[in-house]
Amino acid sequence: MGSGSSKDVTPTQVQVGPAKTQASPKKNAQSKSPAKNVNRQQNGGPSSSNTKSTSNTRPSGGDQHRQKEAIQVKSAEDIVFETFYHQNGKEYQCMYLGGVRYYLDDWGSKEWQEFPKQWYREGRLVAIDIIRGSEVATAGTNQQQPGRGQGRGERAEGSRQQEPQARRERRDDREGYLKHPTRGQLHTYIFHRKHNIHCYYDQTSGSWLRMPIGWELHSEVISKLVSQIEEAIPAWNDRHDILSFLRACNYDINECIATYLHLQGDAWMKAVKTTSDVNALQVKDDQLNLLQKEVKKLKAELAKEKSAREEAESLIARQEDQITDLEVAEKQAEAQLMVFAGDRPLTSMARSKSRMRPVTPAAPVPVPVQERVSLEELEVLQDCAKELHKSHVHLRMEVEKCFTGLRDLMAKSVKAVKQLRSSGTGQIAEMEEVRALYRKETLQRKLLYNQLQELRGNIRVFCRARKDDRAESCLKCPTDQDIVCTHPQLGKKMFTFDKVFDINTKQEQVFEDTKPIIASCVDGYNVCLMAYGQTGSGKTFTMMGPPDNPGINIRAVKDLFQICKERIETVEYELKVSLVEIYNETVQDLLNNDAKTLELRTGGNKVNIPGITEVIINNMDDIKQTMATGDKNRTTASTKMNSTSSRSHLLLMITVQGTDKVTASVSTGTLTLCDLAGSERLSKTEAEGQRLVEAAAINKSLSALGQVFQALRTSQLHIPYRNSKLTQILQPSLGGDAKACLFVNVSPDVFNFQETVSTLTFGANARQVALGQAKQNVKKGPFG
Ligand SMILES: Nc1ncnc2c1ncn2[C@@H]1O[C@H](COP(=O)(O)OP(=O)(O)OP(=O)(O)O)[C@@H](O)[C@H]1O
After folding, report:
1. Rounded distance from Cα 543 to ligand 1 centre (Å)
2. What is the pLDDT of residue 35?
C-alpha cells in the first residue's frame, strides 16, 4: 500500500503535462494554451480547471449554481472529494481535480469515470474534503489518490509529515497503521465496499446463510476457480487457503493471483500458508538441537575422562618414582646385607633371597663401617621391602586396569563423535535440499508471473538508477524488483518494478533483460522500448550509450543480425532503419539531410509516415554510419533552432521483414527505441520564451503518454493517441497487439527526490497497463 506497485492509475496522472504549463500564462504565445485556460477558469468557481478536457466536463452557468455546496477550489492542483446524491436515490463518491470531475462507478464498472454533464441537473454535489495542491506537490506531482484499492489514507509519508495538525486530527477511525515484520510501518484504511457472498438456502430457518468454506469447495463454480488458480500457481496447493484468498478478493481470480504473487515471500503469508513445511522444519530443528546437546554432553564426558586419565598418568608416574626409590633402597639394603653376611651367618630367608636373586657385581655401596644394623632391624626392613613389592605389583595392576578402561572409553567417544558428525552432515544436506527446492520454486513462480504478465500483455517496466559518484544517494535497491527512495524531510517511498537495475549495473546486464522482448520483433511483433526520466538521469546512456560502451540501440541491432543469420537457411530477412526526432510537436526526419518535416497519417491501428527515409542495413557498420548521419542532422537542426537534445524525443525505428523460403509467408515486425525528452517539471527550469514552448510541447506529449496509459489501463473505448505526435507515432506499439517496455531512469541525487518520485510513480502506474496479448504480423504466402 502506498508503494509504487499500486494498481490504479489515478486521475492525477492526467496532469503530468498541462497542469505544469500554468507558470507563466502571459508569456505563452499560443492563445489556446492550457495556461490561458487556467486563468479564465480560476475565476469560474468550483469548476475552475487547467486542462483542456474541461471543455467536456465544465458545467454550464446554470449547472455551476447547483454546485454551490462544493468547496471553493483555489489552485488547479487542488483535489476535492465530494458525494453526489442522484435523484434516483443512488450516491456516488466523486473527485474533482485538474478541472475534471470523476465519480466512482460503484454500481457498474467499479472504476473512476468522468462525471456525466447531465447529472448536474439530476442531483446534488456535496463536498466532503479537499487536498490542497501545495500538499500534493510536497510529495511529488503524481501522488496516489483514492481509487480502486487506494484511499486517502495512502498519501505519501512525505506529504503526511507536512500536513497541518488540524488535518491529522480530522482523520476518521478507518485509518490506521500496521507494523509488518519486514515492510515496516504500513498505512491502512478500511474501505466500504460491496462484496460477493456465496450463500445457500437453509430450509430449516427459511433464510439464505453464508456457505461454510468446507462446503464451498464442493461447489462446481468455486471448485473450478480454485483449480484455475492451482493451475496458474502450482506451488500454491492449499485449496482452503486459495478459497479464503478468493473470498477476500471478491471472487476475482485475477486479483486473487495478483495479490498472492505480489505478497509471495511475505513472512506473514508464509507462516499461514506452509504450516506443514514449518512443522517439518521445526521437527528437524528440534532433532538438531537434541543432537547438539548430546554432542555437548559427550564432549564434557570426554574432557572429564581426559582429566581422569591425566590424573591416573601422574599417579602412575609418582608410583613409578616410588618404585624406583624403593628399588634403590632395596639394593642398598641388599648391599648392607652382603656386608653383614661377611661378618655373620645369613638367616635362612636372607640366604634363600640371595640365591633367588643373582647378585649383580654392583659397585660396593659405601657403607660406613661403624653403622651396624641389628638383625631385628634387618628383618623389619625385609618385611618393609616385601610390603613395598606387594603394593608395587598391586599398583601396576590397578594402573593397567585404568588404562584398559580409558582405552575403551576413548574408543566409544570416537565412535559417538563419528556418528554425530555423519548424522549432522545428513541434516545439513537435507536442509540444503529443502533450500534448493525453495529456490527452485521461487524461480518457477517468477517465471509463471512473467508468463502471466506476457499473457495479460502488461507493459514491462524496468527501473535504472544512474551512477553518480558526486552526490549522496537517496536510492536503495533492497531486491532486484524494489527501489526505495528516501528524503530526510519528505520521508520514504518504495516502488516495485519488473526489474530494478542499481547504479552498478552494466550495459550488458541491462540489455540481457530486454533481449527476449527485442528478439520477438524478428517473429513479426511490434516492439517498443522507451526511456523516461528527468534530464541527466541516464536515458541516452541506457538507449544509445557511448561508442565504447553502447546501450540498447546498438546491442539490439547486433542481436537482430545474429538471429537473422541463425535462421538464414529458412528465412530471408531485410532490416530497414528510420530515425526521427519530435521537437515542439513536429516530426523531423533525421536521415534526410534537408531536415524534412514529416506528416503522420493514422489508419486503424497503423500509422503511416509518407516520405520518411528508410535505410536498408546489412551489417553493424551500416547502422553506425546511419546513426552518425542522424546525429549530425540532429546537431544541425538543434543549432538552427537553438535547442538541446534533451528537449526532444528521439525515435529509432527498425523494421524487420522476413520471407519464409519454403512457404513464402512474410512477417513484418517493428522495433521502436525511444529516448524521451526530459520529464522534469517546468517550475524547476523556470523556462521563458522558447524554453517555455519547448517545455509545453514536452509536457503535452508526456502527459498524452500518461493519458494513453490510463485509458488502456481502465480499458476505455477511446484511447487518446491523437493527443500528441509522440503517442500517434507510438500507437502501433501501444495499441493492443504489441510488446512494450518502459525504462524509468532516475538520478540518485537527493536534490532530485521529487522528480525521482514523480518518475517512479509514472513507471509504477505504467506497469499496470495491459495491452492485451501481442499479435504477430504475418501474411501467409501461396504455400501456407
Ligand atoms: N549508468 C550510468 N553509468 C555511468 N554514467 C552514466 C550512467 N547513466 C548516465 N551516466 C552519465 O550521466 C550523464 C547524463 O546521462 P544522459 O545524457 O544519458 O542523461 P539523459 O537522461 O539522457 O539526459 P537528457 O535528457 O539531457 O538527454 C552522461 O554523462 C552519462 O554518461
Report:
1. 10
2. 32
SS3 letters across 653-678: EEEEEEEECCCCCEEEEEEEEEECCC
3-state secondary structure of 575: strand
CA atoms within 13 A on the CB side of 277: 14
Q: Which three cell numbers stand for residue 272?
A: 499461514
Q: Identify the band that residue 300 occupies on the pLDDT scale cut at 50, 70 and 90.
A: very high
Is residue 22 predicted with pLDDT exceeding 80? no
* Ligand 1 and 781: CB distance under 6 A: no
Site to substitute for ligand 1 among 541, 684, 691, 759, most atoms within 8 A of C-beta: 541
**Angstrom distance (rounded) from CA 571 to CA 644:** 42
Name the residue of 464, 466, 755 whose CB sits within 8 Å of the most ligand 1 atoms, as the mutation to test its pocket: 466
Judge if the beta carbon of residue 748 lies within 6 A of ligand 1. no
Share of the chain above pLDDT 70, in %: 71
Model pTM score: 0.48
Alpha helices in 204-249 (DSSP H): 213-216, 220-232, 239-248
Residue-wise burial string across 106-126, b where 16 or more C-beta atoms lie within 10 A, e elsewhere: beeeebbeebeeebbeebbbe
| pLDDT on residue 616 | 95
Domains of the chain: 11-189 (no CATH), 200-276 (no CATH), 281-445 (1.10.287), 457-779 (3.40.850.10)
How does pLDDT run across 128-178, given as a tens digit for each residue? Answer: 766 665 444 333 333 333 333 333 333 333 344 444 444 444 456 777 778
Write the ipTM. 0.96
Which residue type sits at 21? T
- The beta strand positions in 78-122, using DSSP E, are 79-86, 91-97, 100-104, 112-114
- pLDDT of 591 over the 80 cut: yes
